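Let's practice the habit of predicting before peeking. Look at the sequence and jot down your guess about where helices and strands might fall. Then scroll down.
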Amino acid sequence: MSILLGADAVRRAIARIAHEIVERDPDPSSIALVGIRSRGDILAARLRDAIRRNEGVDLPLGALDITLYRDDLTRIGHAAVVRTTEIGFSVDDRVVVLVDDVLFTGRTIRAAMDALNDFGRPKQVQLAILLDRGHRELPIRADYVGQNNPTAVDEQVEVRLVETDGVDEVAIVRRPEGRP
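Done guessing? Here is the structure:
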């Protein structure tokens, strides 16, 4: 196991992304943050808190479960765990920043955009990612990236956050032989 981002690097990445989000849009009141469960929602909350501290603006915050929108749902079958989606505001005519922990093939983001469309028609959808590891299968790129770190396909990236794991770090581990 190798640590790609420690606690300080995670904190700095969140701070940088928060600044970039408000710099891009001159009217922060039109921005909403929507985190993809299960770690993107935590990162979205941290981004909202950083923007509130820096700009004095309290952005709407939502959490999106994409389980039923996944294109591999038949593969995971009975193991699928459906969580709640919590979007208590209109996404219509807003700049919605989707937030996730790792960008890999792009399939999670495609599913998130499909799910988001069930809630309305945003003016624009942007993407904020803590770590971009490459290996895209779909033409998706992040607007805001904490760190780019190309990985090998047989490596697994694990994001651990204080809220769920007791520590902030991003680690890379090699999958055991014979496992996809």
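How did you do? The first strand starts at residue 2 and ends at 5.
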